[in-house]
Amino acid sequence: MPTLSIPVPRFSPRTIGICAAVITVLIWTSFILIARASSDPARGGLLTPLDLAFCRIVGAALILLPWGAYLVRRQGALGRVGNSWLGISPLSRRVTVSVGFFGGLLYACLAYSGFTYAPAVHASVLMPGSLPLWTALLAAWLLRDHITPARAVGLGLIVLGDLLVGGLSLLHAFDGGQVLLGDLLFMSAALCWATYSVLARHHRLDAVHATIAITTFAVVAYVPMYSVLALTGLVQAHVFTAPLKEVLFQMLFQGWGSVVISGISFTHMIRYFGPVRSTMITALVPGLSAIGAVVLLGEPLHWNLLAGLVLVTSGILFGVRATRLPETRGKLVPGLQASARG
After folding, report:
1. Which of 179, 184, 181, 177 minimizes the C-alpha distance to 162?
2. Is residue 332's pLDDT more than 90?
3. Nearest of 250, 255, 218 to residue 102 by alpha carbon
4. Which sequence spans correspond to the domains of the chain?
């Protein structure tokens, strides 16, 4: 009797790389727009910033904690006695805590809090724009990386762009505005993610292992404490009283989308395009999210925001072109560090 064989579609590395790039850019752009729409009380946001952080962590944990437990058990079954924490994180307790504090907990709380005070256009400039700046400075300090003159020009353009956005916010702060607070929170969130990226590079962490580790720490350190504070009314929280569909949506997008799916897609993008071309692709995020904020959220695009956006995007592209790294297009990058954000 003949056996029925069902052909399984096979996609080329190029197709996978392009799809991964499109998914990464879309999720990173949507993260800024959805976080602003969900955090701004004036837009009918039902959850507080800390509620959103809770949804992000719990949503990601539903996938990553079982995944981590499987990896730890598989390593043990294969006789590979390695460092792990709580039987879930495939990294040691010390590394899990250090990368988890900056990349899993502090980044989420600061980023979501920033959207309460400042518009998405500011986040479009300041978060993606500050990230390469902080990363370069931390890498030069902690890893002794050399900043070439050409790369310094790119970083200088980023600084000018950030100053155009944050500088006018500082002037308006004297009038009682709170936008400056949001801008500072955005830049602090970028600093936290840069710290996480440099630590991941220092320890040569695998992207999946690092993402599982930061989620493990965030679950242990944040979820029980925030649940108690929310249920006892010690902090303003709506995560346990908001409509279930809103909570589930945030868990799906913030947790599954922003953490899990974008982490996987970013990894595949780097495997095909290499680190330099991948950074150039993600330089589309500031412009796309700014346009989305104007079109979808009705935010004004003042001259200083437009100029800052142009300077930051130019600085990212200039800095990437000036960084001569060995491209590995279509090949696996050894020791790929965890660099996905959003």
Report:
1. 184
2. no
3. 218
4. 20-322
